[in-house]
Specification:
Blueprint lengths: L1 H18 L10 E5 L8 E4 L8 E2 L12 H14 L7 H5 L2 H13 L4 E5 L2 H12 L4 E6 L4 H10 L3 E5 L4 H11 L5 E7 L11 H11 L7 E6 L14 H5 L6 E5 L9 E5 L1 H10 L1 H4 L6 H14 L2 H23 L11 E5 L3 H13 L2 E2 L1 E3 L10 E5 L6 H17 L1
Parallel strand pairs: 3-12, 5-6, 5-7, 7-8, 8-9
Antiparallel strand pairs: 1-2, 4-10, 9-10, 11-14, 13-14
Helix pairs in contact: 2-12, 4-12, 5-6, 7-8, 13-15
Length: 410
């Protein structure tokens, strides 16, 4: 009986979303992938659009590793040896050597003592923040931080929270000053790469502020960075925003295996005490299964590729075609947020036009994602293009040609 009443409420909410242009609608279903051939990168085939190949420009798989033979064979080999799933949470019986080996490799990759794996980056943020936010903790957060950070703070119920305008270091310092005498501990939390814009936090400056105000709090100032869109694809060797900004002083770095590394899962790296404490106190680690042994092995293989000479070439190619795309968009007269990260936002600044452009791209065999309020602020509606290393110059030029056609008729 209660479901019928609730159905009416939810249907009204869905109708409101549709009227406002914010309804995501049915998800596209990928039925087949054609691997790269000739001058074309991979092509994707969708349910209901049989026979038509699509170029995917909305994937987080920045290094283009998920279709590589050595990644797939490593997973297959591990699944044959250890099975398809862990069988339990880790403290019961779910830890395999491949999990610990991956954690140690991630710690070494980021020059930390140890790492802890979670089932996703979202759960990593929740799992890390909740045990570290106490009733005597003030959390200070960038206004454009990801939804996972916002929810982690909300669920953790700190003594207080401060929000500073996007990348505004003067406001961050004001929040630190206001916190003096009101808490034992302060946590500054920020995205490394802001996923809607492709811009980055000035981590070196944030580290300096954190260290400057450390003396005013008996339990210190802790800097936590979620660099899920940065690790693997940003910085000279793919070590993310920390490397790119030459920051020294990030206390806990959170990353993902589900974007540049092309697999699944999330992780955090820090000193040994922090990681050991999280293993003992983070519910989303203690009571959730880890990623599968095969996924852990595949992620380790991704690290091997990234740290090889080939990995350096992949990163160089990714930077090159990202600039090719940005330059082409500017020459066509589009407004973009320019940067070195492979997220390239094309600013449309109108919900209806954003949807129309997305549909135009789909009609021409290109998968792209439109972002509208509340995912982005009103007036900042955009198409978020994401360049992957398995894109080719031909792929980039194809998208630019379609966008040129759109420009000519609008």
């Amino acid at each position: 009986m209660g479901l019928e009443k609730l159905r009416e409420v939810l249907e009204t909410s869905l109708a409101d979303l549709e009227r406002e242009g914010r309804l995501k609608g049915k998800e596209m279903i990928i039925t087949e992938i054609r691997k790269a051939e000739g001058e074309e990168g991979p092509r994707y085939f969708l349910k209901g659009k049989e026979g038509k190949p699509f170029l995917r420009m909305n994937s987080n798989s920045y290094l283009g590793l998920s279709l590589r033979k050595e990644m797939i064979s490593r997973g297959e080999e591990t699944a044959r040896q250890l099975g398809t799933g862990p069988g339990a949470v880790r403290f019961i019986s779910g830890t395999f050597q491949v999990h610990r080996s991956l954690e140690q490799r991630l710690a070494n990759f980021h020059h930390r003592d140890d790492a802890i794996l979670f089932s996703s980056a979202y759960t990593t943020v929740l799992g890390v923040l909740a045990p570290l936010i106490t009733a005597e903790t003030i959390v200070i957060s960038d206004e454009l931080n990801h939804n996972c950070i916002i929810n982690a703070i909300r669920l953790s119920r700190p003594a207080d929270k401060g929000i500073y305008s996007h990348l505004n270091m003067a406001e961050l310092e004001q929040e630190l000053q206001k916190s003096i005498g009101k808490a034992k501990r302060v946590i500054i939390v920020t995205d490394g790469i802001f996923s809607m814009r492709g811009d980055y936090a000035p981590l070196a400056e944030i580290c300096q502020l954190s260290q400057r105000y450390e003396q005013h709090f008996s339990e210190g100032v802790l800097l936590i960075v979620d660099d899920s869109h940065g690790v693997g694809c940003f910085g000279e060797t793919g070590r993310g925003t920390e490397e790119y900004t030459k920051a020294d002083g990030v206390d806990i770095l959170i990353g993902t295996l589900g974007k540049a590394f092309g697999v699944n899962g999330g992780y955090a790296v820090s000193n040994q005490t922090i990681i050991t404490y999280l293993r003992e106190s983070a519910p989303l680690y203690i009571y959730s299964n880890p990623i599968s042994p095969a996924e852990a092995a595949e992620a380790s293989q991704a690290l091997s590729i990234l740290e090889s000479e080939e990995g350096h070439l992949i990163l160089a190619h990714l930077r090159s075609i990202t600039k090719r795309f940005e330059t082409g968009l500017k020459e066509l007269g589009y407004e973009i947020i320019e940067g070195d990260h492979p997220i390239v936002p094309l600013l449309v600044r109108d919900t209806r036009k954003t949807a129309e452009l997305v549909n135009f791209l789909i009609e021409h065999g290109i998968l792209a994602t439109g972002l509208n309020y509340p995912v982005v602020p009103r007036g900042a509606e955009e198409i978020r293009f994401q360049i992957n290393a398995d894109h080719t110059p031909h792929d980039i030029d194809m998208v630019l040609e379609v966008l040129k056609e759109w420009k000519n008729i609008n």
